[in-house]
UniProtKB/TrEMBL annotation:
Domain SMB: 59-106
PROSITE patterns documented for this protein: SMB_1 (PS00524), SMB_2 (PS50958)
Keyword Signal: yes
Protein species of origin: Myotis myotis (Greater mouse-eared bat)
SMART domains: SO
Keyword entries, A-Z: Disulfide bond, Signal
Name by which UniProt lists this protein: Tubulointerstitial nephritis antigen
Domain of life from the UniProt record: Eukaryota
Residues annotated as signal peptide: 1-19
Length: 259
């Protein structure tokens, strides 16, 4: 068994050496090609094949011999792949559709323009046409190989946080996760008060009642002393646009309890 492995290792080493020789001889035959033997290119010969749906050579064209411009990023394997005749070796670095496409072609039309797969890139990742991603409060769509983003002002703007924290304002700003991804408008709408009162409500008169002649207000008062276990810290209304309701309800709880 072990000998078997060793034979396997030795034979794959020989294949590598043979391949390198092929590179070199190819280089000599074709001195015009500006071929820098590249780590990436070598790695490309060893990549694992992945299931692939796209069309490389079909969109890219097929080239004669080794042509270093006839290379494209094979995203699925994070490597380079070729559509030139030279890619057909023991350890192939051909693009996935090389065999099906380039072998069918009678002529080998050299490609005319560098071809990039459809879609967009972001942080080194490839996204298909029509993909939608969220960038803070804006959504970006990949269209015509470019990201097109909505232009909302966000509730959290990282530049503003940085600006505040670099100035001498006596306070520091930070990124509150619960506000991340909201527009400024949504912040106003949902985090602050509720809708303005209707004119009908505004035209109501306040109820006046005579105060008791003697009001006996204590000088010192702490609700949690008076009602232990019945008070709590401020509640989070979340995106409910309900600050009036929240404050009213809190006051009512106190009032009810104090009666
Ligand atoms: C070699 O790799 C560099 C980056 O690592 C790249 O810019 C260059 O195009 C590569 N050359 C070839 C022939 O692939
Ligand atoms: C702010 O917080 C959110 C949620 O935790 C995070 O996704 C985002 O990257 C943070 N932004 C910055 C600029 O730190």
């Amino acid at each position: 068994m072990w000998t078997g492995y060793r034979i396997l290792i030795v034979s794959s080493l020989l294949t590598e050496i043979w391949m390198e020789k092929q590179y070199v001889s190819q280089r000599q035959v074709d001195p015009g090609a500006d071929f820098t033997r590249n780590h990436t290119v070598l790695e490309g010969t060893r990549f694992k094949r992945a299931i692939f749906k796209g069309q490389y050579c079909r969109s890219f064209g097929c080239c004669e011999d080794r042509d270093d411009d006839c290379v494209t990023q094979f995203y699925e394997a994070n490597a380079l792949c070729y559509c030139d005749k030279f890619c057909e070796r023991d350890t192939s670095d051909c693009c996935p559709d090389y065999k099906s496409f380039c072998h069918e072609e009678k002529e080998w039309p050299p490609h005319t323009k560098p071809w990039y797969p459809e879609g967009c890139l972001r942080d080194g990742e490839h996204y298909e046409e029509g993909s939608v991603i969220k960038e803070n409060c804006n959504s970006c769509t990949c269209s015509g190989q470019q990201w097109k983003c909505s232009q909302h002002v966000c509730l959290i703007e990282p530049e503003l946080i940085e600006h505040v924290n670099h100035g001498d304002y006596g306070w520091t700003a930070q990124n509150y996760s619960q506000f991340w991804g909201m527009t400024l408008e949504e912040g106003f709408k949902y985090r602050l008060g509720t809708f303005p009162p209707s004119p009908k409500l505004l035209s109501m008169n306040e109820v006046t009642a005579p105060l008791a002649a003697i009001t006996d207000l204590p000088e010192f008062f702490v609700a949690s002393y008076k009602w232990p276990g019945w008070t709590h810290g401020p509640l989070d209304q979340k995106n409910c646009a309900a600050s009036w309701a929240f404050s009213t309800a809190s006051n009512e709880v106190i009032l009810i309890n104090s009666l």
